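#struct-queue
[09:14] JT: dropping the first one here, sequence first, then the structure tokens:
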Amino acid sequence: MSITDNIIRSFRKTVCAEIDLEGEGLDRFIVYTPFMFDDGDHYVIILRREKGTWVLTDEGHTFMHLSYAEVDLDTSSRAKVVDQALASYCVKRRIGELRLLVPGDQFGDALFSFVQALSRIVATALWTRERVASTFLEDFRALMTKTVPESRLTFGYHEPQSDPDGLYSVDCKINGMPKPCFVFAVANDDHAQKATIACYHYEKHGVRFNSTVVFQDQTKINRPSLARLSAVVGKQFPTLGERDRIARYLREDILGSVDGT
């Protein structure tokens, strides 16, 4: 029995029967599995020999595929899932490539671990819209607490005199200036509408404040909602991905302001 037959038998015994190999040059094989992305494309898995050691690799395809689907794997929650998946199954990340060394002749066990790691990473693309919004809000809060002293932050703020029931809440208020800064985290049209209404409410009741909006993705907000929000807020950041610009603005323009203007 050839080494290829032994590898296939090990793969099929440990993972599933629908596994096959196709040779592609010397000591390089495409591993065909039934595991797929949500759009129907199969995982790309390559088995190749490097300096006498067999390695399973996706050759960078998994992260590239998810990036095409506009899945941001750099958010703190997704990054945590990715790191945990890689650590759990001993998969290494080399730039964008995922790799797993095959110990000895344990091809089946290695493929099982590799597929499990890929599946957990790919599953983050299937999070619901609500989960994505929740992840964005978690990342927004993390950025605020990292940038602004905690003693100057109030999350979920509402002005007690004009809004005792908390109907017009502000995602984050930065205190410590004569004119505080209201910062809104906007992930969707509903968030944009709530931020707009809150600003109008506090303007109507004579509350003095500066306002800033951080979007998850400004291009995903419908034009009428964006226009209404733009009419009542000051500074806007089109995506939370502009972390450095947001942090610099908060430190220099907001925390560094003398008169709160």
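[09:21] JT: and here's the second one, same format:
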Amino acid sequence: MISIALIGPENAGNVGAVARVMKNFDFRNLILIDPKCDHLSKDALDRASHARDILKKAKIADISVISSFDVAVATTSKIGTDYNIPRSPIDPKQFAEKLSEAGGKNRIVIVFGRESHGLSNEEVNLCDFVVSIPSSSDYPALNLSHSVAVILYEIYSLLGKKKISSNIPLIGEEEKKQLFRMIDDMLDRLEFATKEKKETQRRLWRRMVTKSFMTKREAFALMGFLNKVK
């Protein structure tokens, strides 16, 4: 199941437009994190048009809701290099392909930032990896509802109306936490020139695990390997 989360949305009309786009592509679960506008205002409802039901069922939450999902995906136009691991992105098509390979047994949230300045570094770090829409370097930031439309289009165009399902389960939160504990334990036993280099390795391993949409079988195999290298 895929949910759409908007952090600190500032314009009610944009929230309504996001709901409309979601319905265009058969998405129903909208989460508003610390909203700065009334998502049930006339402006929002008018912009939503026939997607008013999505607005009326939208969940209001705080930032902690992100941790309740198996996979959290940040969206941003402010991308980094390979050295900026938290903002090292994949594009929407690659993301859709990963979803297609992974199946639909995990709870996934796609997180969008504020209209004015997007997601903070702290908010990006709460997510497992980043998706970024290729756009002009002169003006890379898209309108909020346009960003949602591009990403949901890529998902829908690949998966269509097919039921997103798989007989191969992905790792859940517990397996992911156990893997991270084992990776941290391995890193604690290794020597690094600086604390920063160790932290870079920790982030890199975590990103690789989450970006891969690892199956439970793959996770258990990796756990077995980590046990052997103690």
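[09:30] RK: nice, looked through the second one.
[09:31] RK: The domain at 2-159 is CATH 3.40.1280.10 (Alpha/beta knot).
[09:31] JT: good to know. Residues 118 and 144 are 9 Å apart (CA to CA).
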